[in-house]
Design a protein that fits this description.
Layout: H1 2-17, H2 24-34, H3 42-52, H4 60-71, H5 77-86, H6 124-130, H7 138-156, E1 159-166, E2 171-172, H8 174-181, E3 193-198, E4 202-208, H9 214-230, E5 234-239, E6 243-245, H10 255-265, H11 275-285, H12 287-290, E7 295-300, H13 309-322, E8 325-330, H14 343-348, E9 354-357, H15 361-371
Parallel strand pairs: 4-5, 4-7, 7-8, 8-9
Antiparallel strand pairs: 1-3, 2-3, 5-6
Length: about 375
């Protein structure tokens, strides 16, 4: 997907050079749209890009001509670059490659070079949202902090299904309107209204900090900390060979600094793991006080358990019977070959409402509707 993104960035840059108003937001829409279609189908790709890039009728000829040049496999990158130069592009010759040939398998592609120099690049934030956590750096964490904060804010302002009385917005509530009219001899002086409530979600998160989760833990904990900053009823625990409640330690501090402090304080961070014993410790010590029918329990782990699976089954059964829903985030789901056959994951699965991927920011965005109250 990364090579397709690079190619799309150059394609959009060439359209802009010819006076076609394509924005970086349009590029983002186009990249997402291409994941939903067969990129081996020429006309399907053409229609998708024309819609996503918001090509106006007066620019359709430019779009079609350049699209046809890019699609041709016979015209390799050098030939297409030469064609672009002959069209008097006002900046350095772009590095281009063709889309897959019509009818070609999705596994086959032409090598694409990364845009460099003055060529407008793909949005850095869009790339960061798709970047796997195990490929991220400390600098990426600082950039992600802002994205994660916006992500959490969406959850905190997400309307629920429940309708509540409203002073000025929402749909008219006939029953309350007529009831109020009784005090004014049946005259409707003011219409009562109802709007969707903004309910604060109730979340209990239990995050695996064992060695097998090390490349993902900091980013996933960063997401949970961002949730806590906007949803006060969020409780955060970490576990490896023992359970630790993190909620009292979380402060309004730089994410990297907070994570370093936690890593130093939590016993056996990046060590072994006993998922069953840790979740059972939560069930015995915190379940009644922190989990009810409105609570979403979020377990973040790869399910690689060295402990007692019988304890894990007991804990998961207790969580499932009390919580609104139990969601399990597993970074290993990013691999299409993965199957949840590890002892811990297989034991927990019957009590999990949804098993979800959690390897980049995009996967966390898909989680938000499931966390809403």
């Amino acid at each position: 997907m990364r090579s397709l993104v690079d190619h799309l960035a150059v394609f959009a840059a060439e359209l802009r050079a010819r006076g076609v108003p394509v924005t970086l937001w349009d590029e983002s829409d186009a990249a997402e749209a291409l994941t939903l279609v067969d990129v081996a189908e020429r006309e399907e790709v053409r229609r998708t890009l024309r819609i996503a890039l918001k090509i106006r009728p007066r620019h359709a000829g430019i779009f079609d001509a350049f699209f046809d040049a890019l699609w041709s496999v016979r015209a390799g990158p050098a030939a297409i670059s030469e064609a672009a130069r002959q069209r008097a592009v006002p900046h350095a010759a772009p590095r281009l490659a063709a889309f897959p040939a019509a009818g070609a398998g999705t596994g086959q592609s032409v090598e694409r070079e990364t845009p460099q120099g003055d060529t407008p690049a793909w949005s850095p934030e869009a790339l960061l949202r798709r970047k796997p956590f195990d490929a991220c750096t400390a600098e990426d964490l600082a950039a992600m902090e802002r994205i994660l904060a916006r992500l959490a804010e969406k959850l905190a302002t997400r309307p629920s299904r429940r309708l509540v009385p409203s002073r000025s917005r929402g749909a008219v509530d006939p029953r309350r309107s007529f009831r109020a009219a009784l005090a004014t001899q049946g005259e409707l002086l003011r219409l009562a209204r109802r709007a969707r409530a903004i309910e604060e979600p109730r979340i209990v998160a239990l995050c695996d900090t064992s060695g097998s989760m090390d490349t993902h833990t900091r980013f996933l904990l960063g997401f949970l900390m961002a949730l806590k900053s906007v949803a006060r009823r969020t409780e955060i625990f970490v576990f490896n060979t023992a359970l630790t409640r993190l909620t009292p330690w979380i402060r309004k501090d730089r994410m990297a600094r907070s994570l370093e402090r936690m890593a130093a304080a939590v016993p056996d961070w990046s060590g072994g793991t006993r998922i069953g014993e840790c979740l059972e410790a939560f069930a015995e010590g915190y379940l009644d006080a922190m989990v009810d029918s409105r609570t979403v329990v979020l377990i973040v782990s790869d399910g690689l358990d060295r402990g007692d699976t019988a304890a894990l089954v007991r804990a998961m059964r207790a969580l499932s019977s009390r919580a609104r829903r139990v969601l399990w985030l597993n970074p290993l789901l990013s691999d299409p070959r993965y199957e949840p056959t590890a002892r811990g994951m297989a034991a927990a699965l019957p009590y999990v409402d949804r098993l979800l991927a959690a390897h980049n920011i995009e996967t966390l965005e898909r989680l938000l509707p499931l966390l809403a109250a």
